[in-house]
Write a structure and sequence with these properties.
mainly alpha; globular; 5 strands; three-stranded antiparallel β-sheet
Length: 491
């Protein structure tokens, strides 16, 4: 099974394999940034107070009840068990999880998983239009997203949600390019990844919803314009588009029900078995689903619930990021965290882990997805009047916009406290949209657009380097910290 097919043209033995080298470099850079100083704070950071403790409960046989599905906790527990038996990362230990564990033991598997996300994003980009330059730019932007870096360095669950959801999307795209049993196999794997994603958090459903949005939109277009989706009756298709989404209407209702209904639900249900067996007093499958629903319905919103609650419509502009860790010290040699913390204004060194995206990447991605929304509305309006060409541009626009909306719009009706990290699913697709536009500009003939594309990439990388200290929790002076907090709402 090849995610990245070889180039159709032969290469001389002296040709530099820039594509492989680029992705390898991005992967190892991501890996280094995630593992460097991984045990820096000998504490439970943000929601590690839940996930690391719950993971340790599995290892000690302690019964407990959890307000989320259990898969991420299983994974963290496996990583914690392996990490506790390795001869590395044992210099920082604490008993905060309920057992004596090293901080490295409950964080390393998250770090490893997060380093693979840029590669999965690159694979999706490559499947969409077979452009290697687009795949590399998409991977680079994913690696330069500070929120993904922060989430990867602690025992939290969002990196598992995102990578499983993206794998479901990847196998969906791969299935569209295959026939018969290979298509069924890819669709089945896609459905399993979506089921596993939902077993991280219920909002993993949004990745599956994206497939429904794309499929329904394609069928509406085919219904409105006779012949769309029928390769034999549409010669434009084979000449103009290499996008697998031209085949989406080859999926019928049986494909959808089995692979995106039955298989995800079966996968989700089976993954609950260890939790139910290890915690029998809390009831069976349906009782636990009811408990999760009731728990989240009772969670309020606003600063009284949590100071970093934010509204869904603020996420594309990154108005309210989340502080995961904040401590001050008098010198660089002091142990951090120190309890009790220093009084306000006394510390000369600030350690701040801020869960915020790369601001330049976020703002440019939001502009890109807004442009694609306008383009899609125009194309759909033409489609109403019987004009729709099955080109790569049209189908990629449908795919990116529909998945962006699918991961964002369900939050409109959510009344509980929600955070910027709930935008991570949507942000992948807006960044894919930005990478697509920049790739087209770079490979176009207009020099001005090429320059703007180079400037945009440079600004994104410079911004990532500028905010890197608050992604990694590196020591900053009060002045250095203030220079990175551009808005009061960021603090």
């Amino acid at each position: 099974m090849k995610l990245f097919s070889p180039s159709p043209t032969p290469h001389s033995p002296f040709t530099i394999p820039w594509f492989s080298l680029s992705l390898t470099g991005i992967f190892f850079a991501s890996l280094f940034l995630r593992f460097w100083g991984l045990g820096r704070f000998n504490a439970l950071v943000f929601d590690e107070v839940y996930y690391a403790k719950y993971a340790n409960n599995y290892l000690t046989g302690t019964e407990f009840e959890h307000a989320h599905p259990p898969l991420s906790t299983y994974i963290i527990a496996i990583g914690m068990w392996i990490g506790s038996h390795l001869p590395i990362g044992q210099d920082m230990v604490n008993g905060l999880t309920g057992s004596l564990r090293s901080t490295w033991s409950y964080r390393w598997l998250n770090a490893l998983t997060g380093a693979f996300i840029p590669l999965v994003v690159a694979a999706i980009a490559y499947q969409l239009n077979r452009r290697r330059s687009y795949a590399v730019i998409a991977a680079l932007f994913s690696a330069a997203d500070g929120l993904f870096l922060v989430e990867s360095r602690y025992a939290l669950n969002n990196v598992y949600l995102v990578i499983l959801g993206l794998l479901g999307q990847l196998f969906f795209l791969m299935a569209l390019q295959r026939q018969k049993y290979w298509r069924w196999l890819m669709l089945g794997l896609s459905g399993m990844f979506f089921g596993a994603c939902i077993c991280i958090k219920w909002n993993g459903l949004w990745f599956l919803l994206g497939v429904y949005f794309v499929w329904i939109t394609a069928w509406l277009i085919k219904w409105r314009i006779s012949g769309i989706g029928d390769e034999k009756s549409d010669p434009i298709k084979t000449k103009r588009s290499r996008n697998p989404l031209i085949n989406v209407t080859q999926l019928n209702i049986i494909h959808i029900i089995i692979n995106y209904g039955i298989i995800p639900f079966a996968t989700y249900s089976l993954l609950w078995i260890p939790q139910i067996l290890m915690n029998p007093k809390y009831g069976g499958f349906w009782k636990l689903q009811k408990y999760i629903l009731e728990f989240h319905e009772k969670v309020g919103s606003g600063p009284n619930v949590h100071p970093y609650c934010s509204k869904w419509y603020t996420w594309p502009l990154m108005i309210r990021p989340v502080a995961y860790f904040y401590q001050t010290a008098q010198t660089l040699q002091e142990q951090v965290p120190a309890y009790p913390p220093l009084p306000n204004g006394v510390g000369k060194v600030i350690y701040d882990v801020h869960a915020m995206g790369n601001p330049i990447l976020y703002w440019l991605s939001t502009a890109a997805i807004a442009l694609l929304i306008v383009l899609l509305l125009h194309r759909l309006w033409l489609g109403v009047w019987g004009i729709f060409f099955p080109t790569t541009t049209n189908y990629m626009t449908i795919y990116l916009v529909m998945n962006w909306f699918a991961n964002l719009l369900p939050w409109v009706r959510v009344t509980r406290c929600i955070f910027l990290y709930h935008y991570m699913g949507s942000s992948v697709f807006s960044a894919l949209g930005l990478a697509w536009i920049i790739d087209r500009w770079l490979n176009g003939e207009q020099r001005q657009r090429q320059m703007w594309a180079i400037i945009a990439i440079a600004l994104i990388l410079l911004a990532f380097a500028w905010w890197l200290p608050i992604y990694l929790g590196l020591p900053l002076s009060p002045q250095g910290h203030k220079l990175r907090m551009w808005f009061d709402s960021w603090i």
